[in-house]
């Protein structure tokens, strides 16, 4: 029997959670089609409540609305119906208390890594001693302390993505939204960055919504995994991940880990079978 302990409680960490609860209430999103075509419904009737400090992943087939849902939570898209709340705030647009990491690092090539990381705080006029100290700490945690004066072109893709995560965290956001941040990386680099992300999150457990196509990645990182249906996307099922924290590479060979990966893969597969009949 595996020695990995389990827990269904909120994620234990070295410091108390600093995130905020997220509530989606009946959220749907329909896009108008240019040229008078029929509107396309990307999301329909999504109800979801996340605890403060929870790490939550979304998986599902391509085009199921995962990124649309993330953009609604970020305030980058307006929902067609329903409401989204972060803490006591109703989402009506972007907010500096929400950090975002996209598929590509989107670093400015003419700025050093340090300048890229500090740029959002500089624009927001919040570049103070506390922010600089937080950046120093995050550079150390992410293994980038020796590369902060380098330019993006001098770093590997994995290191650039680490820098983009540090940039999102340096403003100390309540919520971190991540849209397939490691999808373009090889498996070895991806697993290493999963470990880096776990260290960063354990040090300061924000509420995280993480989009991925990689089921093993979702299980490794998350407290719960939401499985979405094909378009129009909605939540098919939410799977608890009762694996103890802190987590390390040894978890990837644990039988309970593989049981959860297999279960989630089955949920996605069953839905495809049903839609193809």
TrEMBL record:
Q: Where is this region: Disordered?
A: 1-20
The UniProt regions of compositional bias labelled Low complexity, in chain numbering, are 1-18
* SMART domains assigned to the protein according to its UniProt record, in alphabetical order: AAA (SM00382)
Alphabetical keyword list: ATP-binding, Nucleotide-binding, Transport
Q: Which GO terms describe its molecular function?
A: ATP binding; ATP hydrolysis activity
The lineage's top-level taxon is Bacteria
Q: What Pfam families does this protein map onto? A: ABC_tran
Q: Which residues form the ABC transporter domain?
A: 22-251
InterPro entries, sorted: AAA+_ATPase (IPR003593), ABC_transporter-like_ATP-bd (IPR003439), ABC_transporter-like_CS (IPR017871), ABC_transporter_ATP-bind (IPR050166), P-loop_NTPase (IPR027417)
Q: Please identify the protein, giving its name as recorded.
A: ABC transporter domain-containing protein
């Amino acid at each position: 029997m595996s020695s990995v302990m389990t827990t269904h409680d909120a994620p234990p960490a070295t410091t108390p959670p600093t995130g905020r609860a997220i509530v989606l209430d009946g959220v749907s999103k329909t896009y108008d089609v240019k040229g008078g075509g029929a509107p396309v419904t990307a999301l329909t009737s999504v109800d979801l409540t996340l605890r403060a400090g929870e790490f939550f992943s979304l998986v599902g087939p391509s085009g199921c609305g995962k990124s649309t849902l993330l953009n609604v939570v970020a305030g980058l898209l307006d929902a067609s119906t329903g409401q989204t709340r972060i803490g006591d705030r109703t989402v009506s647009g972007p907010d500096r208390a929400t950090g975002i990491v996209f598929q590509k690092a989107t670093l400015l090539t003419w700025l050093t890594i340090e300048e890229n990381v500090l740029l959002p705080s500089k624009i927001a006029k919040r570049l103070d001693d506390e922010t600089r100290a937080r950046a120093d700490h995050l550079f150390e945690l992410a293994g980038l302390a020796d590369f902060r004066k380098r330019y993006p072109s001098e770093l590997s893709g994995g290191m650039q993505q680490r820098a983009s995560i540090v940039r999102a965290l340096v403003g100390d956001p309540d919520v971190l939204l991540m849209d397939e941040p490691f999808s373009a990386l090889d498996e070895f680099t991806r697993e290493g960055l999963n470990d880096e992300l776990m260290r960063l999150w354990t040090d300061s457990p924000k509420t995280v919504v993480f989009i991925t196509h990689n089921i093993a990645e979702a299980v490794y990182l998350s407290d719960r995994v939401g499985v979405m249906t094909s378009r129009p996307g909605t939540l098919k099922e939410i799977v608890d991940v009762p694996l103890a924290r802190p987590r390390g590479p040894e978890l990837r060979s644990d039988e309970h880990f593989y049981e959860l990966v297999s279960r989630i893969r089955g949920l996605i597969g069953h839905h495809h079978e049903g839609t193809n009949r």
